[in-house]
Amino acid sequence: MYSKDGEDYFVVDAHIALWDARQENQRNVHGKQFIDCFYDYHRNLSPESEVWPYEEYLYQGGERLMRDVFGNGIVDHAIFQPARLGEFYHRGFGQTEEAFALAQEHPDKLTYNHWWDPRDGENGLDQLRADAERFGLKGVKLYTADWHGESRGWKLTDPMAYRYLEACRELGITNIHIHKGPTIRPLDRDAFDVADVDHAATDFTDLNFIVEHCGLPRLEDFCWIATQEPNVYAGLAVAIPFIHTRPRYFAQIMGELVYWLGEDRILFSSDYALWTPTWLVERFVDFQIPEDMAEYAALTTEVKKKVLGLNAAKLYDLPVPERLRLPDAAEPATGPRQPAAADLAMS
């Protein structure tokens, strides 16, 4: 739990990973391209004090993850969101067995989500059912730009993807996290397009679609979809580090998200080990929309508490001390949330 100026914040890091990008696990040049791209994001968006040496960045292991994420007591719970990337890494990028073992060792602090890929066909459906039982899945992380043989991506609207979403509904896997937005070398930009979320969210209203990275750089597309689909959420992974390098850009992102989605559908994520959560939480609590960006309402303490943990805790039924809970906002289910704050700069 994080405390500042007499306020307590229950913190859930909704997107972390335990990866292995060491040379011995790289299947080909694309494995190196992928982790090098990650490292460039890490190095270029982090304060100098938070930049790791490249070799440390390739693999952290469970002991270091626990220290980095929970060591100072700020983060209350974190959720693994693994990526397979089997075409680039011998044992995959996200380390399933190591992460799951860590979650079993610390069930009060860690939730393990898994992945599926519709291109695995019927065998993959059988594996999803087995994984749901073994891991006790409440959520999955989907990577629509992942390569699979000759294929360089898939869509949520593919017929087989619908079979997997129907299986999620059947198995009680209600939280569908999807990487949508920033491309990563060598993956293709168009395969991360956010457009297919609209169709799937309409057809599966009993599933929650958490769009990681809030569709950046297609923020406007994402907001216009999410505002009309009450089961679409914004994950701040990759977006929130701009609080350091481009604070006005981050203010625009938060202003648009709160305006279009409301305060109950935005989730904090460090994207560990891309970044560590402590400095992001500290900066976010201190952050405010600049006064000259008057078209956006100020970020209240209540909004920050919901974004930092209460919204994710609700999706995953995590226990929150009663004194820290907040009611849902009295907002419409669809459409802009803050009409009184709109276009103030024009008045």
Describe this structure in words.
This protein has helices at 29-45, 54-57, 61-70, 96-105, 121-135, 159-171, 196-203, 219-226, 242-245, 247-260, 277-286, 301-315; strands spanning 2-4, 7-9, 12-16, 77-80, 110-112, 139-142, 175-179, 208-212, 232-235, 266-267. The protein is of the alpha/beta class and 347 residues long. It has one domain (10-319): Alpha-Beta Barrel (TIM Barrel). The strands form 3 sheets. The protein has a 5-stranded parallel beta sheet with strand order 6-7-8-9-10. Residues 327-347 are annotated as: Disordered. Residues 12-318 form the Amidohydrolase-related domain. It comes from Modestobacter roseus.
Features:
single chain, five-stranded parallel beta sheet, three-stranded parallel beta sheet, alpha/beta, 347 residues, TIM Barrel
What's the gist of this structure?
One of its GO terms (molecular function) is hydrolase activity. Helices cover 37% and strands 11% of the residues.
Shape: globular
Rg value: 19 Å
The CATH architecture can be named as Alpha-Beta Barrel
Strand content: 5-15%
CATH topology: TIM Barrel
CATH class: Alpha Beta
CATH superfamily: Metal-dependent hydrolases
Unreliable segments of 5+ consecutive residues:
none
Mean pLDDT: 95
Largest pleated sheet? 5 strands, parallel
Number of helices: 12
Class derived from helix and strand content? alpha/beta
Q: What is the oligomer described by this structure?
A: single chain
- How many discrete structural domains? 1
Helix content: 25-40%
Pfam families: Amidohydro_2
Organism: Modestobacter roseus
InterPro entries: Amidohydro-rel, Metal_Hydrolase
GO molecular function: hydrolase activity
